[in-house]
Amino acid sequence: MYDLVIDNIGVLVTAEGNKPLKGKDQGKVRTLENASIAINGEKIVSIGNSGDFKEAKKTIDAEKKLVTAGLVDAHTHLVFGGYREYEVPLKLAGASYLDILNAGGGILSTVKSTREASKESLYNKAYNFLDEMMKHGTTTVEAKSGYGLNLETEIKQLEIAKELNAKHPADLAFTFMGAHAIPPEYKENKEEFLRIICEEMIPKVAELKLADFCDIFCETGIFSPEETERILTTAKEHGFRVKLHADEIKPIGGSQLAGKIKAISAEHLIEAPDEGIESMAKGGTIAVLLPATSFNLGKNFARAKKMIECEVPVAIATDFNPGSCPSFNMQFAMTLGCSKYKMTPEEVIVAVTLNSACAIEKSEILGTLETGKQADIIIWDAPNLNYIFYRFGNNLVDRVIKKGKLVVENK
Ligand code: NIG
Ligand code: FE
Q1: Which of 85, 102, 319, 320 to mutate to test the pocket of ligand 1 (most atoms within 8 A of CB)?
Q2: Cα(348) to centroid of ligand 1, in Å?
Q3: Are residues 63 and 99 in the same domain?
Q4: Which of 167, 177, 266, 378 meets the CB 3.0–4.6 Å disulfide criterion with 144?
Q5: Which residue among 222, 245, 268, 288 has the greatest number of ligand 1 atoms within 8 angstroms of its CB, and so is best to mutate?
Q6: What is the pTM of this model?
Q7: 110-156 pLDDT, tens per residue?
Q8: pLDDT tens string 275-316
């Protein structure tokens, strides 16, 4: 007797295994027609043909639709105070992302709102985001801190993420990003801020076990590659796996460094040069690409095909945050993956499931539809994989199963 059977699946499309897919394998998926999935508790226990699993406490009829693994958003800044819609006219008047930040706005305005916000208000806001994300098919979310830039608020953000993980059906991954910008109080004394990050924040976040990953904004005028290396080396010494925001605006050496220090991922990579891509390939670094940010900032799109050609595994995420990407819609990012990166639907589906699960070290438990993996499943309102890229702009998620439970019924 199975706890749950999803029967009458038109077509099931999934990557396989626990390792990131790269190069010619970036789009390697298993496609099964007329399939059925048997689930016990939180896990998939068998995959077979439609009608194979008759003994079930509950059966969901997939109505001949497309089924994939739940989407993994491997890059978000989930917990933040306030919004920044006031930037819209500023940008239209010609102000760049860095102009706004350097004038004390941008990230720093969100830092002010996040420091001022109560824990409860931040928690409720992020909880609602997770609900909406799930309705759009996202079942696992990485959450970065970085809107505190002081120990107290960084801890507040990470504790909220931990609590969300305990209370919300979504799975979360936790990233400390105290080096997201230079806070106003250390504007004239960056060295002291670097010292605080290395000697106070990183050790404390490690001691409290509030994050598994450490990220940094390696960018012109923010943190140089040398400062990035210093911080990430300290983070490694304290047991963190490291990530970097690299080559988002200017290619100052972030992707080269990512490969050199064997970062688990480098993210953005809009302007990544050939040497950076080669370094990432050597270092086994995953490229987490964020096309909705390129779209929103009116920037170039990362050279995803070049990365695939050079054997760098590509993942796609949203970058959800109140500034550079106020959208958490993975389907929109997937559309851009196809239309702007020119990745195939198969390459994109691997990028948003298995490869993104690898970027947050969760591929042992989720990211594919296979026996033994967590039952994180989307039934799409679509007859095949191409259709979800073709009908862009609409929420095409019909139902979502998370850890074996039906959590979303959109129709
Ligand atoms: O990934 N670039 C740095 N951090 C975020 C943006 C954060 C913000 O604008 O608030 C990003 O784009
Ligand atoms: Fe980001």
Answers
A1: 319
A2: 23
A3: no
A4: 177
A5: 245
A6: 0.98
A7: 999 999 999 999 999 999 999 999 999 999 999 999 999 999 999 99
A8: 999 999 999 999 999 999 999 999 999 999 999 999 999 999
What does the pLDDT read at residue 102?
86
Q: Number of structural domains, the chain?
A: 2
In contact, 301 and 272? CB cutoff 8 Å: no
Verify that 91 and 169 share a domain, yes or no: yes
Do 248 and 386 share a domain, yes or no?
no
C-alpha 230 to ligand 1 mean position (Å): 21
If asked whether residues 294 and 371 sit together in one domain, one would say no
% the chain with pLDDT above 70: 100
**From the CA of 324, how far away is ligand 1's center (Å)?**
5
Amino acid at 105: G
- For residues 39 and 95, state if they share a domain: no
pLDDT at 411 over 90: no
Domain boundary residue, one of 339, 359, 379: 359
Same domain, 290 and 393: no
pLDDT tens across 204-234, in order? 999 999 999 999 999 999 999 999 999 999 9
Kindly report the protein residue whose alpha carbon is nearest to atom 12 of ligand 1.
324
Q: What is the dihedral sign for C-alpha 238, 242, 247, 252? A: positive
Structural element, H or E, at residue 347: helix 345-351
- Beta strands at 30-40 and 43-49: parallel, antiparallel or unpaired: antiparallel
Decide the pairing of beta strands 377-380 and 397-402: antiparallel
Place of tokens 């958003």: 73
Q: How many CA atoms lie within 13 A of 1 on its CB side?
A: 3
Atom of ligand 1 nearest to the CA of 147: 10
Single-letter amino acid, residue 160: I
Q: Please state the atom number of ligand 1 nearest to the C-alpha of residue 268.
A: 1
Q: Which domain holds residue 42?
A: 4-69+367-409
CATH number at residue 355: 3.20.20.140
Protein residues with CB under 6 Å of any ligand 1 atom? 77, 106-107, 110, 217, 245, 248, 293, 319, 321-324
